[in-house]
Design goal:
heterodimer; A: 183 residues; mainly alpha; 75% helix; B: 206 residues; flat
Chain lengths: 183, 206
């Protein structure tokens, strides 16, 4: 049930996601670079392509994009890994959000809270570009896929900025282009 | 997809002043499951349509307020939003029902996809399709970053400080691979202080 992962490694996996939970301001996707650093670069539990596949699957499927996190857990350690990853990434942030929203949605206009939002916004945007970079890595690193992948990345971004088309169509087009060997 | 009968129903007033409430946590669970299953590439727009326009469980203003706070807090925005709305109606039981609805069935779907992908990945067409979808995912994220740049326009710190903070976080995370915790705590504290100082100065000039 735990894939190839020794049981002793489930602890560090769970703790990793628990830690990231409180850092995931702007959504779980903003912690994707950190997950990549730990799971791929440091531990070697996954490859670049596995990582990008998990995110692609979660975006292709219905539901919140945070579901790429249990897919990563599943790839590393099966169903147990998926549960550890999902509970880890959600538990701390959920408890905090419940507490904070009860404590004071009325304090939003105080300088203290306004400074917090304003100060963190540019950092969050930087994190989004970092996530884009990490997702693009398999295409940057492999010369065979550099051209097709690059064209698709730029075209997707352009369409998203210029039109109001739903992302699911672009994902379908990307999948079709990849299936016939263009990417 | 909204059903066609929606077009024939009495349209709700543009700004709803009266709101209805769900009958039970079970109804919350079912409604959140339905809206999650419609959310390909983002659940937020579907949530707004179902909860505000169609079911009138909350007004547009309440929805915007809840989402602003959900964005500010750590955790997936849509999950935080579900949590707050569920909590408003039925306390922690409602919160659990809403989150469960948002996550449970989509989780099963995505894990089934992942499991069958492991068996299918030997076929070059499947691996290619996933590679193509991965490139689109990278493009979507790039577009999201570019769109968010616009949200910084009204930032109290001004364009130069924003650009410096954003570039610093990109460089530290993507290129130098510094652990996220250090970056968020370090740059977050810097941004918080800078913005606090700007707000203080702005207040004095008035």
């Amino acid at each position: 049930m735990t894939g190839g992962l020794p049981l002793a490694d489930l602890g560090p996996l769970f703790v990793h996601f628990l830690t990231l939970s409180l850092l995931s301001i702007g959504g779980a996707m903003s912690t994707a670079p950190e997950m990549h650093r730990y799971l791929v670069a440091e531990r070697g539990w996954l490859g670049d392509a596995d990582f990008t596949t998990a995110i692609a699957l979660a975006q292709a499927a219905p539901g919140p994009n945070v579901l790429f996190v249990p897919v990563l857990g599943f790839q590393i350690a099966g169903i147990v890994g998926a549960a550890a990853a999902l509970i880890g990434i959600l538990l701390p942030s959920t408890l905090l959000s419940l507490g904070v929203s009860r404590w004071g949605s009325k304090r939003r206009d105080t300088p203290f809270v306004r400074a917090f939002t304003a100060g963190l916004a540019p950092v969050t945007v930087g994190l989004m570009f970092s996530s884009a970079w990490v997702l693009a890595l398999p295409f940057v690193r492999e010369p065979d896929h550099r051209l097709g992948g690059g064209v698709l990345i730029v075209a997707t971004a352009a369409v998203m900025l210029r039109t109001r088309i739903a992302p699911i169509w672009l994902i379908a087009i990307g999948g079709a282009a990849g299936a016939i060997g263009w990417v | 997809m909204p059903p066609e009968s929606d077009l024939n129903a009495t349209p709700p007033p543009l700004v709803a002043t009266t709101t209805l409430t769900p009958k039970s946590p079970l109804e919350l669970f079912i409604v959140f499951t339905l809206l999650a299953m419609q959310g390909f590439g983002g659940v937020l727009a579907v949530a707004q349509r179902e909860l505000v326009d169609r079911r009138r469980w909350l007004t547009r203003e309440e929805f915007v307020d809840a989402y602003s706070l959900a964005q500010l807090l750590p955790g997936p925005n849509v999950v935080n939003l579900s949590l707050m709305l569920g909590d408003r109606f039925f306390g922690w039981r409602g919160a659990m029902a809403a989150i469960g609805g948002m996550l449970l069935l989509p989780l099963v779907v995505v894990l089934v996809l992942a499991a069958s992908y492991n068996g299918l990945s030997d076929y070059p067409a499947v691996a290619g399709a996933l590679r193509g979808m991965g490139a689109v995912a990278a493009g979507l994220m790039l577009a999201m970053g570019l769109k968010m740049l616009g949200a910084l326009r009204g930032n109290v710190m001004g364009p130069v400080l924003c650009a410096l903070l954003g570039a610093a976080s990109l460089a530290l995370i993507a290129i130098l691979r510094v652990p996220l915790a250090w970056v968020v705590v370090g740059l977050g504290a810097a941004g918080w202080s800078l913005a606090g100082w700007c707000i203080f100065r702005q207040g004095r000039e008035r």
